[in-house]
Amino acid sequence: MDDDIKKNIANLKPSATLAINEKIKQLLKDGKKVFNFGFGQSPFPIPEKIVSVLRDNAHKKDYLPMQGLPELREAISKYLLKRTGVDYKKENIIITPGSKEAMLLMHVVFNGEIILPAPSWVSYEPQAEIAKNKVHWIETTLDNNWFPTAKQLEDKINSIGKKNIILILNSPNNPSGSVCNNLNQIANVAKHNNIKILSDEIYTDLTFDKNYESISKFCPENTFISGGLSKWCGAGGWRLGFFAVPNGQKDFLNALKTLASESYSTVNSPLQFAAVEAYKGDYSDYLNKTRSILKLVGNYVFNNLKSNKILINPPKGAFYLMPEFLNSKFSSSAEMCDDIINKTGVALLPGSDFGFKSKKMLARLSYTDFDGDIFLKNINSGKKLDDDLVKKYAPNVVEGTNKLVEWSKTL
């Protein structure tokens, strides 16, 4: 190890989700048949009106305010009020190059301890390590929908002691596709112990029952919210996110703003104008259709995978499932996933990438290996969706699921 690289940075590995995407691209380049269940990217096109606004503002070359375009922050403030019932004023919102950057800023600013439920998105822990904030894991269970119980959280806080703490919560969840059903109880523990919560709400608008509930509703004074255009709008590569800070956290907000000013300066100007349209416009038809497709495809995979060899919960949002394979053939979930891709071409991410012990045979499955544009153009809002549509417009998902089923029979 070079002694001119900080140890906490040198020990990091590339993001697991980006690494699997690069591996899949290389396999495809080599002529291999791959079923891309590994990378979590929206399969749908960005709504044309939003693209049109970006096109119309492509000539905008001046730096915008460091905190972000006021009109955009106002639009996000109203968006959050409508979805959470909490008034995050535009002065408390900062625009960032993706919600991932927003969370990294939070970690760097924060001085304390981080509580993560296992499973958690792959970048929460490395970002904490970059900022030298200690991570404490809470191992969850399928029976509790892969979220911590209030007692687990209370016990973990007590074991850490009287320190600054942030709990990171992501619902709908990456990697499980589950929705947290005990937000009120978790919020009560957080309030009682005066800990902060980061509610990662990047999948808010992809909640299948549409009745999204934010933990900020129960703990508005301590809940930070991150979000962006990557998932609901299909704009992952645009890198447009936001971070909302609760009232009473002015020092934290000022520190975030200073850090932003000394790192990326300001977010891409044309994108911010396009994002105003994304947050102010009515995209309910687009969202209803994309949610319906994801729910249909997710339930197809769930119904065909579940067996006495594979434990799995039904999808409730986002575009993920987290199957547990009942076997003792492999020493780690990473070894299992290597075996799966080598024998079937199905790319999955191992549960160990999301905070689980390596011996738990869990994997993340992203059921987005289909052309979302074609699927969208061939459904009718008033027509009942069925599995025949999945077979017609998501053939890779169908074939990859069948290959997984056949592979599981060898366990």
Structure in words:
- The protein has 411 residues and is α/β, with parallel strands linked by helices.
- The protein has 2 domains: 7-45 and 284-408, Alpha-Beta Complex (Aspartate Aminotransferase, domain 1); 52-280, Aspartate Aminotransferase, domain 2, CATH 3.40.640.
- The chain is 41% helix and 13% strand.
- It has a 7-stranded mixed sheet with strand order 2-8-7-6-5-3-4, sandwiched between helices. A 3-stranded antiparallel sheet has the order 10-14-13.
- Helix 4 (70-84) packs parallel to helix 10, helix 5 packs across helix 6 and helix 11 (284-305) runs parallel beside helix 15 (395-408).
- It starts with 6 loop residues before the first helix and ends with a helix.
